Protein 1
Amino acid sequence: MPIYEFRCSKCGEMFEELVRASDKGGVECPECGSGHSERVISSFSFKSDSGVGTAAGSSSACGACSKSSCSSCG
Ligand SMILES: [Zn+2]
């Protein structure tokens, strides 16, 4: 389940909540108990997985000759 950031429109408190995709209503503010909150889209929650797994398969290769079998360079 994704964690969304909310900001209370009454007192301005920022808080995070676990919400379901079907849950579109405002969540209750833990500070003042107000139900009037709006979701804040934080940019750092959109991480890409690129750059992971590129080194797989080449770890056993020889660093000197870039071959899997090192009969030439030892
Ligand atoms: Zn509040």
Protein 2
Amino acid sequence: MSDSRDAPVVAVEGLSKHFGNVVAVDDLSFTVARGEVCGLLGPNGAGKTTSLRVLMGLERPSRGSVRLFGEPVRAGSPQLARVGAMVEQAAFVPHLSGLLNLKLWWEADGSRWGRADLDGALAVAGLGDAVHRTVRTYSQGMKQRLGFARLLLGRPELLVLDEPTNGLDPGEIREVRELIGRLTEHGSTVLLSSHHLSEVEQTCTNVVVMNYGRLISQGTVSELIGSSGSVYIEVDDRERARTVLEAIDGVRTVHLQGDGLTVDTTAGRRSDLNAALVRAGLQVETIMPTQRLEDAFLDLLDARNTPGAPIGATS
Ligand SMILES: Nc1ncnc2c1ncn2[C@@H]1O[C@H](COP(=O)(O)OP(=O)(O)O)[C@@H](O)[C@H]1O
Ligand SMILES: [Mg+2]
């Protein structure tokens, strides 16, 4: 028996999903702990939507399992009531106000309107007075915020969002990002998918990178940024540091730059570089990645893809 209070909010284990001979998800495993904002990051066709649909009990896995709050998920599982999910296009009645749409949706399964967390939902969604206007007059971004309000009525512990900024303009994207920030202040756990790398970098605490249905990398955003690429270092003796760094496996080049050095690595972790410098008796003043998740993501795809293998690949 698992104690569901200690269990990760989301636990995907060995998940595969086939559609005929298309492998949409291939032996995928990852977890999301309470309070994390986890980004499921991958290009179009990577298997993100399929994974989230299995997670919500909308598709059955071909193999493997998905647990929410420690309990296995299937259609109609009781713990799905603790989840607010936006994995399908949110549909609203255009000639009714935003508020009336929320009420209709809430009451559709017989729930009492008085029990909905309307104030909380509207505070996070930030629709303002627009909630009294008909949805027909809403921009795409306002519809998205109404969709968020709808999810939040039930005080969900976990939010599952499939590409929440798709189709929005840059201003609306920023608003959704701020909205997700407000969610996390309330202690919600969030799992969102995105093919926008910079967005995951700015919004998420953790990231699961996938491609061709498979896991490529999982970690905190800062771990992933630091896992390969370019590192800027300042030390008390640049020339000696250069000799030490050049001798480390995985270090490609070392350049003097400004007051420090820029190290281009394929495998070296920052902590390894730091340890080597300290062992050599050097004083390390600064050591930081110069690379954004975007580059790390592309590096990872480059390094881990085996050509010809994926059946589930799309153009
Ligand atoms: N119902 C389906 N029937 C057949 N193939 C599907 C179905 N749903 C998804 N796929 C295929 O599975 C792969 C992963 O799709 P999807 O999960 O939508 O990826 P993403 O959301 O990352 O863009 C793609 O090759 C897609 O064409
Ligand atoms: Mg998708």
